[in-house]
Amino acid sequence: xxxxxxxxxxxxxxxxxxxxxxxxxxxVAISLTDDDxxxxxxxxxxxxxxxxxxxxxAVIAIAADNEIxxxxxxxxxxxxxxxxxxAIAERAWGVLGTEATSSLSSSxxxxxxxxxxxxxxxxxxxxxxxxxxxxxxxxxxxVVTSAGTSPTIAESFQYYMEQIGITVQVEIYDQATxxxxxxxxxxxxxxxxANAIPTVTTEAADVYTFYQSxxxxxxxxxxxxxxxxxxxxxxTTTDEAERAEIYxxxxxxxxxxxxxxxxxxxxxxxxxxxxxxxxxxxx
Length: 283
What we know:
The chain is α+β, with helices and mostly antiparallel strands.
């Protein structure tokens, strides 16, 4: 049958939307949660859910403005290999998440593979011990917002750090307060960050906005000459092939220097009822 009209509803509450979807008020529902997807998968009468890549990859940035962290590569390596990112991805995003393999999503045009750390808790413990740092020196702060998956990520990261001898004090604030703290030098030692851009772009794309020397957050601001030259070159070139090569080098730099810890790529999801034969939309 030909669709004669489409009526759109905007919901401020996800639960209300899903109740309407279950009751047949809606034929299509978008922006589903992991729980929504699992509910639909368990009940054929609720139709089908579809995941769509969000082009985003979440990472944990390790403070560039903390002297202990920035000057101690072995400690940064311990943090990266001592975190079970696959477990965090599953806990935070469920069926909508997959373990990240770089600081950019694999659906982005500048993605370069091979930048995931292998989880090795025992080696991480050894590296921490070899630093000779005291318990006070191994105590850090992680400020996150109360929204979305950030608290779950922070609490999971806190747990893994505790297992290797590092204390992470998690502070959870509303968005405005967290942003204010992030802008302070020394405001946080770890930050959950994400980059997301369209998969196709006709303009010079700056996918690493928060890591340049003039970035708004000291925790992510890179001061090294090499990385800033790469970031600037990637931002200013108009040659797509050249930009992809440069951003590949940026991903190499972050990986080799243990600056960003890739966590998860996540998808958005929509569902359509059993009365709809098929439905393809860009979420």
